[in-house]
Amino acid sequence: MKGGAMDISAKREPACEPGVLAAMCRRWGEPAEVLELERVPLGRPGPGEVLLRMQAAPINPADINVIQGKYGFKPALPAFCGNEGVGVVMEIGPGVSNFRVGDLARPVPGVGTWREALVASARDLLPLPVGLPVEQAATLSVNPATAWRMLHDFGNLEPGDWVGLNAATSQVGRHLVRMARHMGLRALAVARRRDALRDLLDEGAALALSEEQAAGRGRLRDSLKGEKLKLAFNAVGGRSARNLALALDRGATMVTYGAMGLQPLEIPSGPLIFREIRLVGFWVTAWYGRASPGQVRGMMNELARLYHRGVVHTSIGARYPLMKLHDALAAAGGGNTGGKVILLL
Q: Catalytic: 71?
């Protein structure tokens, strides 16, 4: 990689290699116990197929959940691991018209990104915009996409409106804060740590509170000083979700997209009945499954534009080669890297 751009000329043609290194899961369980690095054969692309040389892939919480057998889908075993990442198209088979050599692409969930190269149906690859640094391209389709979709698919927001969120220091949370500011919205950001509040304000939050400050009936609502909270994003559950729900205005919506607190929602009946608030869930993988290619392409192009404007940016906390997969998993599980853990492939 030179100056943030990909240099594919230095890559060997993977089809000439006896096999490529890949992370394999042959039974569900804790990653440290069930993941193995194996050499797997790599053929040439046939009709409708593409040969993709993987470049980088993040370790997301969803990846761990898939390996544990606790996510929204289970690939057939044995399974290639990794749900997000970016590769360069090195060769295309007959009948492929939507990719060219040198294009960037991401395999869809279930194909597996934690490997050096792969041959897949062109239908199982998501085109990514050109002109992005490898690591940003590798992390574009989950966290930034989740934030973008939730801000645009729920509620009729206008500049000056308030949106609320917990887990504000997560990658999705930070993208929500920055995107909200870019859209002229005001974000009420709730974080677990008080020492992170100044950082959230610097990133564009209009108001930042700790979970302790937000606890208690009416505290978040009071902090708005009569302003109305029209939309909220919950990734924690438990009492944190309850606090957000209590702050919502009449007819407002709370979108749940994560369960970091491993607790069920605690939503009082009062706001549900007398303020007619709505509770909905969102899973970006399901959105990709029902979206048209044009919708996906339009969103990705917009996210790329926002990257170039400094709005979309994923913090990278650590980088590991695939051979150090278990060290990378330990770092990701530790949660102290300050950003995404990236596998360089």
A: yes
